[in-house]
Amino acid sequence: MEIPYTNPEKLEPDLNVFLVKRCKGLPGDTVRVKNGNYKYSGSLYLPKANDKLVIDTTNYQLYKPLIEYETDKIMAIKENVIYLDSAVLNNYMFKMNYYFMAGDNTFNSRDSRYWGLVPEDHIVGKATLIRQSKDMNTGKRRWNRTCRTIK
To answer: Which of 7, 25, 66, 136 lies at a CB distance of 3.0 to 4.6 Å from 31, suitable for a disulfide?
Structure first.
């Protein structure tokens, strides 16, 4: 399975890979991922532009790639103190909106559960047509859905 990043830790997009996913979490939403399933409550907060969040050792791993992407600086923890380059980082104001994207095949999909939150500048379009559709139980093509518009 492909991933949209050449380096997921730095959110460096792979310009040769385009994935079609459903947006399951908008900026400001809270999503919980447990045992590979996601729900719309819990501890994973999707930052929106101008949100100022406390950055601590609990949420460090979640927000580290996002902050490093926005600032082009390195985050690190030394003796339970978080640094952005050499400056102590207690909180951070996000510059962009972030989204939680999920695939249709919940149990076998590379999506935000695997590669993290998606910055708004990585979203390049919106799907408008179902190219093909297969029945998950039989594997047969569902002709009544093929080439239909997405509402």
So the answer is: 25
